[in-house]
Amino acid sequence: xxxxxxxxxxxxSLQTELGSMLTDMLVTMSDRGPDSAGIAIYGDQxxxxxNGNTPTDIAKITLQSATPDTDFxxxxxxxxxxxxxxxxxxxxxxxxxxxxxxxxxxxARTLLADMRPNIRVMSTGETIEIYKEVGLPRDVAHRFAIPxxxxxxxxxxxxxxxxxxxxxxGAHPFSTxxxxxxxxxxxxxxHNSLRRKLIRDGISxxxxxxxxxxxxxxxxxxxxxxxxxxxxxxxxxxxxGFYTFVVGTRDGFGVVRDPIACKPAVMAETDRYVxxxxxxxxxxxxxxxxxxxxxxxxxxxVYFWTH
Amino acid sequence: xxxxxxxxxxxxxxxxxxxxxxxxxxxTEWLVxxxxxxxxxxxxxxxxxxxxxxGSTGYYxxxxxxxxxxxxxxxxxxxxxxxxxxxxxxxxxxxxQYAGATGRGGLLVIKGNASSRCGISMKxxxxxxxxxxxxxxxxxxxxxxxxxxxDAGDALxxxxxxxxxxxxxxxxxxxxxxxxxxxxxxxxxxxxxxLEEAGSDARPEDFTRYGSARKLYHFDIDxxxxx
Lengths: 307, 227
Fold this sequence. Notes:
Shape of chain A: globular
Strand order of the largest sheet of chain A: 7-2-8-1-13-12-14
Number of helices of chain A: 8
Oligomer: heterodimer
Number of helices of chain B: 3
Distance between the termini of chain B: 53 Å
Structural class of chain A: alpha+beta
Strand content of chain B: 15-25%
Largest interface: A-B, 17 and 16 residues
Largest sheet of chain A: 7 strands, antiparallel
Distance between the termini of chain A: 31 Å
Number of domains of chain B: 1
CATH topology of the largest domain in chain A: Glutamine Phosphoribosylpyrophosphate, subunit 1, domain 1
CATH class of the largest domain in chain A: Alpha Beta
Largest sheet of chain B: 11 strands, mixed
């Protein structure tokens, strides 16, 4: 199984409720996969209104550590000194969000790997933050205070592991490119051969997980100039197995199911939002759901929305 | 009319109450409120009662139904009316995957569309879909009748046994061993009765019949290409 939820807001007045709506949706899906949970939030632009930089100069890195007390201690000062720039760090339980000049992301990652090798990078980008841990959705969401988060769109996943170990890094969402993320219900059968091809194209992997390969595949397509929609279309030819994917980018939100489409999916759309749930149960508390257009996405058909 | 608020009472109490009705019960009208997509609503009923569910349901609504008449005033999740034995189930909206799977009797009416695998392995149930059906419908269907007033998706009737399939619109593709067949007067009569019972004003003469070519019943090397 596995449970997926997603919410793409059209009405900006709902943005302050994104975290609480997504948490409610994800908690409803707990019995589809109780071993780990994660949420990607497309929130405020990093550094907006601060430091005199235009916001696009600033990016965020979401970090995770199993020993946050030691790993995050003094990290802000150390990175600021070594990169000779003002870096800010905001920690939330086992995760922390760094805000730094965008052109220093690679340098910061190299330094982190050297200085704090136990730290893992969950995501990088202008607006994305990813929080994921082993445990039930309710516990994971509250550890990171997800219900209080604001944003434009977000994706959540609760996992029943089949293809790799139950670990923080094996939890979804997976992010393999700036402001990109993917969650998956299903299992891929050609992920090992595809992983080898992507490694030859210069993509690196954090886990043995099949879903990370799907995320990396889409990143690779988009790096070559494909739009989210085009990348999902080519995935229908190149990804073999069972899948319902929900994918996020900086401005976009996409859904695709394999041609067999045995992994469940329900969507709802109103003037105010587009919502995805593995089951209708996940959608019942959304505003005006009774008046929403509710449908099951067709097999082998790409759906995507952009802001 | 007896009303049960599923949010208040919980699923177990709802199903125990409905399942404990005798054949001669005088409480014949039931309304279930706040289904909110819950699983296994009104399963295993065995009494001539009318149950209306006010809203959409999750997995396996009305499964194993005998005698009861169930109406979902909303859409139904995967496996609605699974293994139904008798009675009638009406879905006012759409139905998800494998509606009516393995059903042995009774009538399932879907007023909207049904998605993939509608009537998979059906064994005597009658299913009338007012809209379209998805791919792999009536896969290995053994007996009963599937009526589709709209279009059918890919691989209709793959590995079909003796179920009768009637489609008014287009069929994207036929599955292995499923072929178009002639409409004879007895088929028109059968269809007329089912459409009437399902509240459809479609004309039986507008449908095409599909059935088994009967090449896959037993392995025969001469039919290897059909597998």
